[in-house]
Write a structure and sequence with these properties.
This protein is an alpha+beta fold. It has helices spanning 3-17, 41-45, 102-117, 122-131, 135-149, 152-165, 179-193, 195-215, 242-251, 257-268, 272-276, 307-312, 335-348, 358-371, 376-382, 391-394, 400-413, 420-442, 445-455, 458-461, 476-485, 488-497, 519-536, 542-561, 573-593, 602-611; strands at 32-35, 55-60, 66-71, 76-83, 89-96, 287-290, 301-304. It starts with a helix and ends in a 6-residue tail after the last helix.
């Protein structure tokens, strides 16, 4: 038999060896039919689930994996079936047969087939898309975090912008939003609520996206808010004139809560929220201490408590707890209503001010102090602004006394807005404050001890006219001796000085008798020198200089009583006489104590005379 004959006989031989069989359909198998020639509109209409079956599958012969799933309920839908990288069968729905045309469904199936060929998994991608976080979910998580970080008012504004203005995008997938969507939203907000609101929404969305990218809630390559257009804002340059300040001061003399807040903002330069939410536990004897949790920059703020501020504060109730202003324990509210009422009151009195805000008082406060020559660092400290750069790391000074002097200067500058009665009362309180400072020193042995021990040489005290009416504690010198003898570093030098004052009238070092009998002049001098003493307390160089100011002032008064004119020049007669007196004192001290004493120079006397020029009448 040749090869051709063997190949022809092969089928007959196979049919003889293999018996005829019949394919048995299992009861659990789903009926599946492949339509020859592909789906057509006519063939699709004939595809239905057979009676007694739950579903039937029909497959297209043109596009592999593309088919129709027919349920016994009569519903039919397009499907696409494939195998993933793990050889598991996956099936995804494309759409209802009645809603999606054959050509559209087949095109979608072909796109899925192309993606599967490239390693994609449409089923997993669809599930991930359904489970993707929406913008509202990110907003809720962000607000929970922001509430613990931001100040109450800042958080309230952030919440308002994200919940109200960003509402059209709440149900969009956060990772599917693009820069075009954000820009369109900002344009709508600019039209409905204004360009400033659009800028604030843009800032809130940018912070939200940055936080989402860092925490991993948003899976994206970049922040879509970046490079979106930002509306131009006009800088705030409004400062109030003298007439406007006077009108506002006059209109707030009613004593109401808002009136007091306006005046306190003007007197202290604080923000309205810092005054409106002021608490009684932040009001101390000599200053207002506002905690870090209420400050914009997150740094504690101290405001010197001057008499004008004390008078403006309301009377403290018995318990002395809670907020100074407001009725609900959360501070003052009703800002807009109270501001409209104040503007109406100003208009009624004939003062039609250009639109102004409470923050303009703060800007005026800063501008006037800078114009007056106050150091910018001191003004920034009064405004509670954070220092920038390296200075913020190394300069930790509180500027406590410098701020007090600057605030005193500001209140003097504000004298024109006050009534004559208020100005007289302020001056009376300042004089009383100077006298009280002297009394506090006289009744404080510890302070006297520190000044005597650290700054006042014993030989200078030996020949000074001391007021005998102000006694000094008898044990002061013994305390000094015990303290300095225990310190080996100063033991030798202090043994030389013997720590004992020579015989002479008893009294403290700062109460020198003057020939000037004018009580008003003495009160003015006491107030000025006491303020300088308070400022220099604890500084090693300043108290000695202040002591010498008082010594030279007493000598100048004696020579002026003898008819010598006051002069600060190096060749003036007053300079020569004071220089001679000081050197005589030093010579007597050197002879009696057998110690070295540096002669006083004419330049030093001239410098001291210039310092006391404003105190000499």
């Amino acid at each position: 038999m040749n090869r051709h004959e063997q190949s022809v006989a092969a089928p007959a031989l196979a049919s003889t060896v293999l018996p005829r069989t019949e394919v048995i359909q299992l009861a659990t198998a789903r009926p599946s039919t492949r339509v020859a020639g592909g789906f057509t509109r006519a063939s699709i209409n004939k595809m239905h689930c057979a009676p007694g079956k739950s579903e039937a599958l029909f497959w297209d012969s043109v596009c592999r994996g593309f088919g129709i799933r027919a349920l016994k309920s009569g519903r039919r839908s397009w499907i696409y079936q494939y195998r993933d990288e793990h050889k598991r069968t996956r099936r995804i729905a494309i759409g209802d047969v009645s809603a999606v045309s054959l050509d559209t469904a087949r095109a979608v199936a072909r796109r899925h087939a192309a993606n599967v060929t490239q390693g994609a998994n449409p089923s997993v991608q669809r599930k991930a898309k359904r489970a993707a976080i929406t913008l509202l979910d990110v907003i809720e998580a962000y607000l929970r975090d922001a509430k613990a970080r931001q100040r109450p008012r800042s958080y309230k504004e952030t919440e308002r912008h994200l919940r109200r203005h960003a509402a059209p995008l709440h149900h969009e997938r956060a990772d599917a939003l693009h820069r075009r969507d954000i820009a369109q939203l900002l344009d709508r907000v600019a039209v409905t609520s204004g360009p400033i609101a659009a800028n604030r929404l843009r800032a809130a969305l940018s912070a939200l996206w940055t936080w989402g990218l860092r925490t991993g809630l948003i899976e994206a390559e970049s922040n879509p808010v970046s490079f979106t257009p930002k509306h131009a804002e006009k800088p705030r340059e409004r400062t109030l004139t003298d007439e406007e300040l006077k009108a506002i001061w006059k209109a707030t003399e009613g004593g109401g809560e808002y009136d007091r807040i306006v005046r306190l903002c003007l007197l202290t330069g604080c923000r309205r929220e810092e005054i409106g939410a002021l608490r009684w536990d932040e009001v101390h004897d000599d200053q207002l201490k506002i905690g870090t949790e209420r400050m914009k920059g997150g740094i504690a703020h101290e405001v010197p408590l001057l008499p004008a501020i004390v008078e403006t504060l309301p009377v403290r109730h018995e318990r002395g707890e809670g907020c100074v202003f407001g009725r609900r324990g959360t501070g003052f509210s009703g800002w807009s209503k109270s501001k409209r009422a104040l503007d109406a009151k100003l208009a009624k009195t004939g003062h039609c001010l250009t639109p102004w805000t409470l923050h303009d008082l703060r800007r005026t406060f800063s501008t006037r102090l800078h114009d007056a020559g106050i150091e910018p660092l001191v003004v920034e400290a009064l405004l509670a602004h954070k220092q920038q750069g390296v200075a913020a790391v190394y300069n930790r000074a509180s500027f406590r006394e410098a701020k007090r002097l600057a605030l005193i200067r500001w209140h003097v500058m504000l004298g024109f807005v006050m009534t004559p009665e208020e100005v007289a009362a302020r001056r009376r309180r300042e004089r009383e404050g100077g006298r009280n400072a002297v009394r506090r020193f006289a009744s404080n042995p510890a302070m006297q001890e520190r000044y005597i021990a650290d700054f006042v040489p014993a030989e200078e005290l030996a020949h000074l006219p001391i007021d005998p009416d102000v006694p000094s504690p008898a044990d002061v010198q013994a305390r000094i001796a015990r303290g300095k003898a225990a310190n080996r570093k100063f033991k030798k030098s202090w043994r030389k000085q013997e720590l004992l004052r020579p015989k002479g009238p008893a009294g403290g070092p700062f109460f020198i008798t003057s020939v000037v009998k004018n009580e008003e002049v003495q009160e003015r001098r006491d107030a000025a020198l006491s303020a300088l003493e308070n400022q220099s307390e604890g500084k090693r160089g300043q108290p000695l200089m202040l002591f010498r100011l008082r010594v030279v002032l007493a000598l100048v008064d004696r020579h002026r009583a003898e008819g010598v004119p006051f002069g600060t020049g190096p060749n003036s007669r007053m300079n020569k006489l004071v220089l001679e007196d000081l050197n005589k004192m030093a010579a007597r001290s050197r002879d009696s104590r057998k110690s070295r004493s540096t002669p006083v120079t004419a330049g030093a006397v001239r410098y001291v005379l210039r310092q006391i020029k404003g105190l000499v009448d």
